[in-house]
Amino acid sequence: MIPKLHYISQGNSPKEHIDNIQKACSSGAELVQLHLNNISEKKYLKLAKEAREITSYFQTRLIIYNDYKIARAVKADGVHLETIAASSMKARIHLYTWQIIGSTANTIQDCETLLGEQVDYITLNPFRSSETGDNLPPVLGLNGYSSIIEALKTETPIIGNGGITAADVKDILKTGVSGIGVSEEITRDFDSIKTFNQLLSASSTEEQRHTFE
């Protein structure tokens, strides 16, 4: 079973990511993603071990961002691959059978590719974007979510992500999305986890049905 609320870690330093994962776990998060970029594999492994200790204590699921070798090494619950190019087939070979694989998509074609690789969940990103610059993926919004989910007709959980706030949840769920990933709003106020869980009805008995082997 994949929880409906995913906390995607944030922080101004790697240590802050770990501190925020601790806060998220103690505030009731059922799944957290250690989301680090531009860091050495040695340091990433050390931090992943710290995150695994914290999440194990709270019985929270841990997803490692973009590094399946580290996900295997620390026996995380799974890995999240950011790009379609990062083949989940290759990751699957290296992971334990019970570890899950998620990946990010922005189009119907992306999703179909990932479904063909039998990922365990797909994150549709971004719902909205606060970033500026070139080569950013198109913002999907409610209409984008609805059209993709209607076209896919899949039982694979679809997770919305990208600038989502508590005010968005009700309308996002109407599109058929299974759950959401949240960074900024939770990092600003970890008590908001309770609000998100209530909005998602994300108690352990009402999670999206999906089997962890």
Major β-sheet, in short? Answer: 8 strands, parallel, barrel
Bin the helical content. Answer: 25-40%
Strand order of the largest sheet: 1-2-3-4-5-6-7-8
Mean pLDDT: 92
Class from helix and strand fractions: alpha/beta
Shape estimate:
globular
Give the tally of structural domains.
1
Low-confidence stretches: 202-213
Count up the helices: 9
Can you count the beta strands?
8
Architecture in CATH? Answer: Alpha-Beta Barrel
What Rg is obtained from the alpha carbons, in whole angstroms?
Answer: 16 Å
Q: Classify the beta-strand content into a percent band.
A: 15-25%
Order of SSEs, N→C?
Answer: EHEHEHEHEHEHEHEHH
Could you name the CATH topology?
TIM Barrel
CATH superfamily: Aldolase class I
Main CATH class: Alpha Beta
What's the N-to-C terminus distance?
10 Å
What does the model show?
This protein has 213 residues and is of the alpha/beta class. It contains nine helices and eight strands. It has an eight-stranded parallel beta barrel with strand order 1-2-3-4-5-6-7-8, surrounded by five helices. The longest helix has 18 residues, at 41-58. It starts with a strand and ends in a 13-residue tail after the last helix.
